[in-house]
Amino acid sequence: MNQEMPEWKLYERLVARMLVEQLETDLCVTPNAYIVGRITGVPRQIDVLIETRHDTDNSRRIIVDAKKRSRKIDVKDVESFRGLMEDVGATHGYLVSPAGYTKAAGKRAQAAVSIRIVPLDRLEDFDPSTWPRCQREGCKHGRVFWDGYPELTVVLRPLDDSEPVHQSSVHYVGKCDRCGRFHVRCLVCNDILAPPEDDEDDCGHQCSCRPPWFWLASIEEDEDGHDSAELHACLMTGRVITVDRRSL
């Protein structure tokens, strides 16, 4: 069993991992996210954040609260969670617990909140210490949580009359589970890159196999003025694809 994390953090990461395996690929998952509350104006910690992957769109946000404890979820838990949802602008939420919930909590949850049971025995073979270490300088204990596997394809047109060449590659994309830094792993050369989203002088990152694209992270603003950090694949054809993101 992982010795780097207390069991309640392991439970949060387990729930995040399970969600990645169940969700559509156009949604991205961020464990241990922080979003500035729209009402309180302070950073709110989110156990698991789910949002659209490819667009700067914060209107379809789902949050998850993973409660690793022995007692059932009750009405107060649901009401507190609904308050968090309102503050961070979540349209739906999941309360997850190994102990289940009371009948009153189930009635209070209604349509906006779903309550799920994930038993603790699922932790037995779950070990995030095997995940790669965060590449960001100063992040001592962060591990990279992979939440997407985009395939990039570029059509290379020769100068002569020969047929165009299609070059494709699959990458892992994800974030550090502590500091949130984006990471990319190339499955051809096995390089792991960590583009910073807060460095305006950063010109992009390319792995050692030199594909016809590079990686760049940035902070983008939606039409309502809310920011999100985004990871982009920049193809030499001029096309830019947002492959991962997390709200701020």
UniProtKB/TrEMBL annotation:
Ranges for domain Restriction endonuclease type IV Mrr: 43-124
Keyword RNA-binding belongs to the record: no
Keywords: Endonuclease, Hydrolase, Nuclease
Pfam families the UniProt entry points to: Mrr_cat
Signal peptide residues on this chain, from the entry's feature table: none
Molecular-function GO terms, alphabetical: DNA binding; endonuclease activity
InterPro entries in the record: Restrct_endonuc-II-like, Restrct_endonuc_IV_Mrr
Gene Ontology biological process terms in this record: DNA restriction-modification system
Protein's name in the database: Restriction endonuclease
Organism, as annotated: Rhodanobacter denitrificans
